[in-house]
Structure formats: C-alpha cells, structure tokens
Amino acid sequence: MNLLLDTHTLLWALADAPSLATGAREAITDGRNRVLVSAVSVWEIVIKKAIGKLRAPDDLPHQLTNARMEPLEITIAHAMAVADLRDLHADPFDRMLVAQARTDGLTIVTRDARIASYEVAVLPA
C-alpha cells in the first residue's frame, strides 16, 4: 500500500503518540508499505511552527529519513488537480494532499472527515 500522511498523522507517527489509531500505526510501520510525506505538510509545519501554533521537531528531515518516510514533491500535475476538487475543504494544505493522493493513487492516512468526503482512499488515523 502507498500511504500519504496528513500533517497531524505525520507528527503523531514521529512522536509515537497514543492518539494515532492502531491500524494506522501498523500500516505506517509495516515495511511492505511505502510511506510518503508531502512537501505541503512540511510547508504547513514550518509555517505553523514559525507563528507559534505548532510544536514540531527541529530536525524534521532527519526524522523523516530515520522513519523511512519518503518525500513527495508537489508537481504541476498535482497543482492542476486541485482545480478538479469540489469545494468541500477550505484548507489549501489538505486540498493539495487530496489532489496528490488522487493523482498518484495514494491512500491518505488522516482523521479529517472532510478529506474522507472526497473520492480518495482514506485510512483512519
């Protein structure tokens, strides 16, 4: 399975937080699955951390590598795919995650019910 972590899921996974659902944790740590982290999630973390709305590791790139999480760049195809999304979610970061998942055939690991409203595979976090 190819998993795309929503930002909150990424932070929970890195912190080994009890908030993360057992099924999601097992899928993320299962070596047979690819675990991808979008550049948009890192962007969101950096912005929210800078304005004091979020606590996150300072060594995020190192932690991603150690957790065998792969980067997912934002492509022009991803950006164009946002235009095809119904207006169900106002958050531009989450809309990009949906566009990436739909374009690349990924399963988003999230607890956000609004993301699950789109035609995209979701694994509850």
Question: How would you portray this structure in words?
Answer:
Helix content is 47%, strand content 16%. It has 125 residues and is an alpha/beta fold. The protein has one domain (2-124): Rossmann fold (3-Layer(aba) Sandwich). It has a 5-stranded parallel β-sheet with strand order 3-2-1-4-5, with helices on both faces. It is globular and about 35 Å long.
Write the layout of secondary structure elements.
Layout (H helix, E strand, L loop, with lengths): L1 E4 L1 H9 L6 H8 L4 E5 H12 L9 H7 L3 E3 L3 H6 L10 H13 L2 E4 L2 H4 L4 E4 L1
Parallel strand pairs: 1-2, 1-4, 2-3, 4-5
In short:
The protein has 7 helices and 5 strands.
| CATH homologous superfamily identity | 5'-nuclease
End-to-end separation: 15 Å
The number of helical segments is 7
CATH architecture: 3-Layer(aba) Sandwich
Runs with pLDDT <50, length 5+? none
Task: Provide the spatial order of strands within the biggest beta sheet.
Answer: 3-2-1-4-5
* Classification by helices and strands: alpha/beta
Keywords:
16% strand, 5-stranded parallel beta sheet, alpha/beta, 125 residues
